[in-house]
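User: Fold this; tokens only.

Assistant: Input:
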Amino acid sequence: MFENALTNIVVVILVLGFMIFIHELGHFMAAKAFGIRVLVFSLGFGKRLFGIQRGETDYRVCVLPFGGYVKMAGDDPTQVRDGQHGEFLSHPRWQRFFVVIMGPAMNVGLAILLLGGLYHFHHQKPAYQEQPARVGDVDADSPAAKAGIQAGDLLVRFDGIPNPKWEDVEIKVFTTINEPIQVEIARDGENRTLAVTPVAKGPNHIGDVGWYPNVPAKVDAVEAGLPAGQAGMKPGDEIVALDGRRVFFWPRIASSIQEGAGKEVSMTVAREGKEIDFHLKPVLTDLRGEKVWRIGVGFRGNSVVRQLPWGDAMAASLRDNLRNSLATFDVLGKILTRRMSARSLTGPIGIAQLSGEAYRAGWPELMMLTCFISLQLGIFNLLPIPVLDGGVILLLAIESMMRRDLSLAIKERFAQVGVVFLLLLAAFVMFNDIMKSIRPS
């Protein structure tokens, strides 16, 4: 437990530190391009730990690692300025706008480039995401079951999207709570239109309807000393029916065996174009310290891994980042209008936990998470919140329309509101993370 917590902290500091460096580098490069003097380039806030002075710039690392800033000459309207060209506020508004927006733009660009690079060398996704959206299983008493959806149904239209992929379906469900979604299904040669209403589930209170994708039960391994091996089942077999019911989602086999508590099961297996029936009696065995009923088969991972050409990789990265951006704005809008729970927000503690889990899962997962967080950081900084880049952009836009600078008093109040808001937001998301750890449901 302690080792995992320590790993989480180290990984999140490295990940956030890298993204903050890229963000501040955007401000730094734009400022230098316009001849603005940069006094401080800092990773972190608070007391200076160490650094180096190069020319007029102090490159430093500070004690609080979650943040960073670039301090430019003449960027504080409350301080006396001498009107020199190297001061930030002495430059035209369009140049100041470019300096400010380059930080978020670098984060968005980093997400696109890193994800594109990952896809070029390692593009992995579940096989079901590339197939038609066929339902593999439905939980009893779930919203999907109440709507009349059954295992084997094909989604031919979902929320107005014809022939949807599971990626489209999953994002829409995750970001919808207590609002009906129109679904057209194909079953036994007929189309039916239904409405399914997601409900909040899990510590993040994301939408869930209780259905699962079609994932065939391809046998990957058979243990010789257990019932399946003794009966002659082989790797490569596909279990297509269990107790007379078609199987579209292999995890349901394991849960059904556990629910049966040793009751004999009948299975139909497809092998080389033929179907073979097996009658197996599960045995109670010890698995990782727990007593479970087993027949002795393991199922094949249903992931597709390939290397995409650079053009295809970047196109896929742009598409996925756009989808994630639209989903982010959708969630923010629903939180503000109270159509989604604010528990879906994640703070530093949650990000640290996710970072540690991704690190332990492998570098592709860590890279995916890094890209996602970088995109979220860019989007968050563009929100019109005082003190953030989006707040500065909002002020510049107002001043451009007024064709004059706002008064110092207004700018000070604007900044004060921003500081209070960010402190309250930080306290809320940290409390949110703690409560999700204590009460995960």
